Amino acid sequence: MAGVGVDEAMLNDLKNTAEQVAVEAAHLVRTAWVRMQSGGEVAVDTKSGETDVVTAVDRESEELVRARLKRIRPGEPVLGEEGGGAGNDAAGGVTWVVDPIDGTVNFLYGLPTFAVSIAAQVDGVSVAGAVVEPVSGRRWTAVRGGGSWLDGTRLSVSAADRLELALVGMGFAYGQDRRVRQGKLTADLIGRVRDIRRRGAASLDLCAVAAGWLDGYFEHGLHRWDWAAGALVAQEAGATVLLPGEAADLGEDATFAASPGIAAELRAALSAGGAAEV
């Protein structure tokens, strides 16, 4: 089970830590979400543009995660969506990669599809992670070489083997020009698959591939914290996973996950549709 120079005992310890801390952060996020459903307000700011939002709850969640990791795993760097950090990982050391709310727009609108995502990486490779959904309470976990689970039940990708019967998830960028190009790619793909879903939380789309709820998933422009835990969950469930920089024919910032039975066909369809130019 050892992977990237990490033994089995340490992998399980890292997974347990990721899960424990993600559950704590998810409780904080859920409390705020429930308060919002009752008319409470939350401070909102923007980042790259008006559609790219961050809430006070995102920041509070990340602050909680950083504080807990500092206590449990002192000295290990943290890369977080809101707080940054860990630009250069120490060789052979553990770096924690955190998305305090993946799906902030869903959270803000009251949609229950969002999650807290925490992964432990060594030399830039995810070795353990957890994705926890604050509203449903579902816990997705994985260790490299040891499998992935949903609430303790082992996960396995779908047996899909025909692209025309595949259910595929996709995501879109915040920038309008790129969204238009992505829309054209989606229009090209829609006639080749069963249907397309867009849920607005990359970590949960990757986990859905792991569970067989989606047969494939593709998105441009994800950051490390978007895929760090979810991609490991998908890969350990048997998915073919390609991360940013690994598939020039799909685009240098493409993330791809699919059941092996359709992976080659889906990749070819996306490439033929001009994914690399999106």
Q: If you had to describe this structure to a student in words, what would you say it looks like?
A:
By secondary structure, this protein is of the alpha+beta class. It folds into two domains: 8-154, Fructose-1,6-Bisphosphatase, Chain A, domain 1, CATH 3.30.540.10; 163-277, D-Maltodextrin-Binding Protein, domain 2. It is 37% helix and 23% strand. The chain contains eight helices and 14 strands. A seven-stranded mixed beta sheet has the order 3-4-5-6-7-8-9. The protein has a five-stranded mixed beta sheet with strand order 11-10-12-14-13, sandwiched between helices. The protein has a two-stranded antiparallel ribbon with strand order 1-2. Strand 10, helix 4 (176-190) and strand 11 (195-197) form a beta-alpha-beta unit. The longest helix has 30 residues, at 8-37. It is globular, with a radius of gyration of 18 Å. The model has no long low-confidence stretch (mean pLDDT 93). It comes from Amycolatopsis echigonensis. It holds the Pfam family Inositol_P. It catalyses: L-histidinol phosphate + H2O = L-histidinol + phosphate; a myo-inositol phosphate + H2O = myo-inositol + phosphate. Its EC number is 3.1.3.25. Catalyzes the dephosphorylation of histidinol-phosphate to histidinol, the direct precursor of histidine.
